[in-house]
Amino acid sequence: MNTILSEDKWEKKLNIETLPAKHEKDDSHHSRYEPTPYCVLERLCGSGLIHENDLFIDYGCGKGRVGFFMSHTAGLSALGVEYNPSLYQAAKENLQKYAGRRERIEFICESAENYVVQNATCFYFFNPFSIKILKAVLSRIYDSYYENPRKMRLFFYYALDSYLTELISDKNLRYEGEIDCRDLFHNADEREKILIFSVIS
Questions:
Q1: d(CA 117, CA 140)
Q2: Tens digits of per-residue pLDDT, 54-79?
Q3: Taking every pair of C-alpha atoms in the chain, what is the biggest distance, in angstroms?
Q4: Which of 42, 89, 100 is nearest to 64 (CA)?
Q5: Contact 112/133 with Cβ under 8 angstroms?
Q6: Which of 4, 20, 41, 122 has the fewest CB atoms within 10 Å, i.e. the most exposed one?
Q7: What does the alpha-carbon distance between residue 191 and residue 12 come to, in Å, rounded to a whole number?
Q8: Of residues 118 and 20, which shows the higher confidence score?
Q9: Helix 131-147 with 161-169: angle, nearest 10 deg
C-alpha cells in the first residue's frame, strides 16, 4: 500500500492539515507530535469494534486527525485531549474547515491526567505520554467505569515495551487481541499493530 497517497487522499477529503512540523518537539513526559497513519485508522475503523453510538477519546490528539477520521468514517462523536496549546490551536483551526459534521467533534486543552472521563466508551493512545501519566489516565478511566459501568475498549497503536508491561500487569484490564498492521508498511516491525484491551470489574 502507498501510505503517502493515503495521507494525501484523506487530508484533502477531510479538508484538514495534520502533518507534523519540525518545531513540534517532545518533553520528558510527552512524546513529539506524530499522527497515526490513515491506513492504520482505516483498519481500526474496519475492525467492527467501533460503532456509531461510541464516544471516542483520543489522548494526545495533536492536530485532531484521529477524531476527524473516526467521526467522518464511523459517524461517532469524538473528543481530543491535548496539553500543548499550539497543537490544540491547530486542531481548532482544522475543526473550522473540516468537511464533516463539526458538532460531533470537540477538543480540550488540558493535561490528560487531569481530564475527568464521563461517558466515553473508546480510548485511543499512540504513545502520547510517559508511564506516569498513563497510570493517572487509566485511573481516571476506571473511576468513570465504576460510576457508570459500560463496555469500554482501549486501543494502543505501536505500543512501546514500557506500555505493554504496564497494560499486561494491570488487573483492571483484559487483553482482547490485536489488529495487525504490519502488511501496511514496507519492512514493518512487530509493533505495527493496535492492541485492544477492555475494562473489567
A1: 6
A2: 999 999 999 999 999 999 999 999 99
A3: 44
A4: 89
A5: yes
A6: 4
A7: 28
A8: 118
A9: 30
Which residue has cell 495487525? Answer: 180
- Rounded percentage of the chain residues whose pLDDT exceeds 70: 95
CATH superfamily of 3-12+37-199: Vaccinia Virus protein VP39 (3.40.50.150)
Domains of the chain by residue range: 3-12+37-199
Q: Does this model's pTM top 0.85?
A: yes
pLDDT, residue 25, reads 59
DSSP the chain: --HHHHHHHHHHHHT------TT----SSBPPP-PPPHHHHHHHHTTS---TT-EEEEET-TTSHHHHHHHHHH--EEEEEE--HHHHHHHHHHHHH-SS-GGGEEEEES-GGG----S--EEEESS-B-HHHHHHHHHHHHHHHHHS----EEEEET--HHHHHHHHH-TTEEEEEEEE-GGGSTT--TT-EEEEEEE--
Q: Enter the C-alpha cell of residue 33.
A: 507530535
Cell of 43: 483498519
How many whole angstroms separate alpha carbon 45 and alpha carbon 51?
Answer: 9
